[in-house]
Amino acid sequence: MALHNLTLGIPVRNESLNLKQFINSLNISVDYLQNIYKDIKIEIIVCINGSTDNSENIIKNEIIASHLDVHLIFSSEGKLNAIDAILNSKKYNDLIGFIDADTLLEVSAIYELYAEIVDNKNLFAVYSNMTPRGNDSFIYRIQKSHYDSRFSNTRGYIHGRFYILKNADLLKVERIKRNNKKWILEYGPLVDDIYLSRVIVATYGVGAIKEVEKSIIYFKPPQNLIDFFFGYRRIIIELKRLSFLYPEHNFIQKKYFSKNRYGFKKYKNYEQKFLYLIYQIIVHFIKLIVGLEILLINFKIIKLKHVWKTTHSTKVI
Known about the structure:
Blueprint: E1 6-12, H1 19-36, E2 42-49, H2 55-62, E3 70-75, H3 79-89, E4 95-99, E5 103-105, H4 109-119, E6 125-132, H5 138-147, E7 162-165, H6 192-204, E8 209-219, H7 225-245, H8 250-257, H9 270-298
Parallel strand pairs: 1-2, 1-4, 2-3, 6-8
Antiparallel strand pairs: 4-7, 5-8, 6-7
Helix pairs in contact: 1-4, 5-9, 7-9
């Protein structure tokens, strides 16, 4: 197996509540990888993008003071702006990965992704197994029924919480100018994983993306209905924006990324069936509400706002 150096990019915006825990898990996971592959070099680039909290000071005190090769940079607000800045700052031209700072890494999380993508010449992107953590609230339990791999199908597309790419150029977004101000298309894509998944499938085929189940990353789903609404709305709005920006990719979502809607029959007991049903009902109502919003935007009755609204209840794991 040929070894490759690795760049890890970490966009940070108002993550002070979880940063210390995240940094600790990052240190341990990087050390685990380097204990196995002692000759690879790893650089970590943290990009502050529009933070108004204490994130910058925490990073300076925690990460930069560590033994890791860490660089702190800044960009304008927005995850893809942070990704652009990281791509322009990296010194290695090998593998590149991106990790959300509101997560926690299992010890072997980085190693498992690295080993998988280096060992498989047909893969161009690998991503971690998302494992939800939260209190035992009702809203958490209905979301867990969605995220739990026992109850859902293989995604087939990247999840942006932690992924590694062979080709960093895939993320150099072409800022296509479209004459459609009501969808603020001049900013290009706003969600990295949706756009990136389509580009990879269009370029390399559906088999170029893989979830690595042994690479576990913990996250906190929305703990209230308001954050649940805005998190799901972000996906719907971005899919609409991408349909205008890159119409040549529209077939990919339907052909490769649509989920099986008959999962209800697979549930083992009535509680699981009930949680699944409630989740689907809530999602259905969100789609109706956002569908109405989209209609009003199309008729220029209202303007598109808060595409990436912060979901505060997801910030402490």
